[in-house]
Design goal:
mainly beta, Methylamine Dehydrogenase, Chain H, five-stranded mixed β-sheet, 38% strand
């Protein structure tokens, strides 16, 4: 699947998708056709819209790939699913992945997690997705998408149950299956609601009350569904019988002779059937994963004799605890099977491969040559790992030496069992937390979940410097640039490999050094950071992952010493004035008040009060090139603006909701530069009734929608910014589809 290591240009926009909305799990599907999914799709009007060309900033994966599936009857056709970033189809001609679910909008934020996928061996163009990121009570129910053209267009059925693509067990499965005897019948295993069945190709669903396992409100439920000839097998993850089957009699039964439900075999994680040798392979672990596994095994069922054999490559033990995860067979060579270890942090996870049905095994990691030159961040500041969180494994049905496996950050592939490289082009799954488009130097700086900060010297290829190191962070919590001295940049984040939680750069983010000192609370509660316009003052706020807030600290010597700022609202996000180095601002979301500093952050006094409160995601943004010109995004309370340095705020007329806001280069104007372009994700009903990506070139007097119904990416409420060098260019952070950017057509 990997053609070369040279970066490829981003693809043209995907074909327009059409989604048909249907009823709940037991209701008939609607026959009406709508242009896109979600309630907002019904709100169509002659909109103020400017067409844009949307592309994805290349990094390369960065998130957990939970499933990879080759089509058994079409050479070169494969699909991938992720825990929060949607589903993808492999384009064999271009050697890249094509996103299939970017059309899901704001109201469908919970559907960007893909719980399971299924193909129909007899109908190659059919594809099914089971969507739902969280199974908790606060999350909306899931949905099933079904396609007759490999994901170019979709029909949709909303379910009455919740799925959990970003919860424990998300690497299990597949939990969705086309019945091997009847393409009209589909099966869907749920976490808390048992087994569902559809007899009309996924248009309607009902519980299979004959399935014998008892559903649990807190369990794993059905962990895997697999076809074995004309029989359906179902794995059960809540204790007791672990494996059931449904044969010609249509009765479910416990599979005879299966491994006992002991500590090493409690959860069947995945299963794969080798039709050539008529053997079913099942991986087990003492938990669903991807974390918290310490024991596991691999077993083979001879489906002719009914005999079971323990074919575990290496038994976990003291000092080498792990589970088993992925399993795949080579249809082109019967007896070929590949399994993965999972949660093996000491010796590092591996793939074991056998060509004799599991009698003997070879560890592929031991001879692997990794080439991550196309995605340098995978060095993690040192040597690349063979993998972790390996629960998705696939073998090309036409080439038994072509293997793919997903990790917590990428998809690795090989065609000779020795040389491995990411096969990840087009698949981007980062959750984006901060974005800065500098006036010079890097095209873009980004702060991301799990992989820290990136310096993007190109938008079409993975950052050549990899992730920012010295120190390496996990999730970035803060990123700020000194506007009058843009070569000076600071970043904060969760430490990884050291206790350093803050760093600075004097070359625009190309290289970094940790602060010489840091407050004691920094490693356990790193929060957002701000730097004064001249780079002389740092303000660092502290928030623990559980929401506990701590006093902010200030440094006037580049991080060599720090002092507590008692008058700064705990946990607030500091904002520096773009022109006046003495001014800082912070919005206290607990009380709905703005606090101001005119003495370089040493003290803060109250400004505007009585503003919306109660949501930590309310944010202040300062308009570039102006002092005291502040904008406040207040989500469903709209957008507010202050022109007096935060002492008073007034609503921006016509804006019903604002979730993220940023600025770009002003539109060309007579008589000199105009007001900076204002970008937001929000709702302005005069333009469009749903949450959209919007731009204003007249300080918020009018807005134009710049995304379309094919480009919505679920939840996009964290960060957006324009480009100070290119009018109209926008960078949008998503929660699982990486960084999207666009230029007017």
């Amino acid at each position: 699947m990997r053609a070369s290591s040279a970066p490829q240009p981003d693809p043209a926009p995907l074909p327009r998708r059409r989604t048909v909305l249907a009823g709940a799990a037991v209701a008939a599907a609607s026959a009406s056709a709508l242009p896109a999914a979600g309630p907002a799709a019904a709100a169509r009007r002659p909109a103020r819209t400017q067409p844009h060309r949307w592309r994805t900033v290349a990094i390369g994966g960065t998130g957990f790939v939970t499933g990879v599936l080759f089509h058994p009857a079409v050479r070169g056709l494969a699909y991938a699913r992720t825990d929060i970033g949607g589903a993808y189809r492999w384009d064999d001609r271009r050697s890249r992945w094509t996103a299939l679910t970017d059309h899901l909008g704001w109201d469908d934020w919970n559907l960007l997690g893909v719980e399971a996928m299924a193909v129909d061996a007899a109908h190659p163009d059919r594809l099914y997705l089971a969507l739902g990121t969280y199974a908790q009570e606060w999350a909306p129910p899931g949905a099933v998408l079904r396609s007759e053209d490999r994901g170019a267009t979709w029909a949709r059925t909303d379910l009455a149950v919740r799925l959990g693509a970003n919860e424990d067990g998300r690497g299990c499965g597949e939990r969705l299956l086309v019945d091997p005897r009847d393409s009209e019948t589909l099966w869907l295993g749920t976490r808390h609601d048992g087994l569902l069945r559809s007899t009309d190709r996924g248009a309607t669903w009902a519980a299979d009350t004959s399935f014998p396992a008892v559903a649990s409100a807190t369990g794993q439920g059905v962990t895997v569904l697999v076809a074995v000839g004309r029989t359906v097998y179902a794995g059960w993850g809540d204790g007791g019988t672990a494996l059931y089957r449904r044969g010609a009699s249509d009765d479910w039964e416990a599979v005879p002779g299966q491994p006992s439900a002991g500590a090493a075999t409690r959860v069947p994680v995945r299963a794969a059937y080798d039709a050539g040798s008529r053997a079913l392979y099942v991986t087990y672990a003492d938990g669903p994963g991807p974390n918290n596994q310490a024991d596991g095994s691999v077993h083979r069922l001879d489906t002719v004799t009914g005999g079971w054999t323990d074919v575990t490559p290496v038994a976990p033990g003291d000092g080498d605890a792990f589970g088993y995860g992925g399993v795949a067979v080579g249809a082109a060579r019967p007896g070929t099977v590949v399994v993965s270890t999972n949660n093996r942090w000491g010796a590092v996870d591996t793939l074991f491969r056998s060509t004799d049905g599991g009698s003997t095994w070879t560890s592929l990691k031991d001879t692997a040559v990794l080439d991550v030159s196309e995605t340098p961040y995978l060095t993690w500041g040192g040597e690349p790992k063979f993998g972790w969180w390996i629960q998705a494994v696939a073998v090309d049905p036409y080439d038994a030496r072509h293997l793919l496996y997903g990790t917590g950050a990428t998809i690795f592939g090989t065609r000779d069992l020795v040389h491995w490289a990411p096969e990840i082009r087009g698949l981007e799954e980062s959750a984006v937390r901060q974005l800065i488009a500098p006036p010079s130097g890097a095209r873009l700086l980004s702060g991301l979940g799990d992989i820290g900060v990136m310096y993007h010297d190109s938008l079409a290829s993975s950052p050549s410097r990899g992730m920012a190191s010295d120190p390496v962070f996990g999730t970035a919590t803060g990123l700020a640039l000194a506007t009058l001295k843009p070569s000076y940049v600071v970043r904060t984040g969760w430490p990884s490999g050291s206790d350093a939680a803050g760093a600075y750069s004097r070359d625009g983010g190309a290289s970094w050094q940790p602060f010489a000192a840091q407050p004691a609370i920094a490693p356990s509660a790193p929060g957002p950071v701000a730097v004064s316009a001249d780079g002389a003052t740092l303000l660092w706020s502290f928030v623990h992952w559980d929401g506990t807030k701590y006093a902010a600290h200030r440094s006037t010597d580049g991080g060599a010493t720090w002092a507590e700022v008692a008058t700064f609202p705990k946990g607030g996000t500091p904002v520096a004035d773009p022109l006046d180095p003495k001014r800082f601002y912070v919005y206290d979301t607990d009380t709905g008040a703005v606090f101001l500093s005119t003495d370089k952050g040493a003290t803060f006094t109250a400004g505007a009060s009585g503003l919306p409160s109660g949501d930590a995601q309310f944010r202040i943004a300062a308009a570039p090139g102006r002092s005291g010109d502040l904008w406040l995004t207040a989500k469903d309370d709209g957008l507010l603006r202050s022109t007096d340095g935060g002492r008073t705020f007034a609503p921006v007329a016509g804006c019903q909701a604002s979730h993220a806001l940023g600025f770009g280069k002003a539109a060309p104007a007579k008589g000199g530069p105009g007001y900076p372009a204002v970008f937001q994700t929000g709702r302005v009903s005069s333009t469009y009734d749903g949450v959209a990506v919007l731009r204003s070139d007249d300080a918020g007097a009018t807005w134009v929608r710049i995304n379309d119904d094919d480009h919505r990416w679920g939840w996009t409420g964290e960060v957006i910014t324009g480009d100070p060098r290119v009018h109209g260019r926008v960078y949008l952070g998503t929660n699982g589809r990486g960084i999207q950017y666009a230029d007017p057509k």
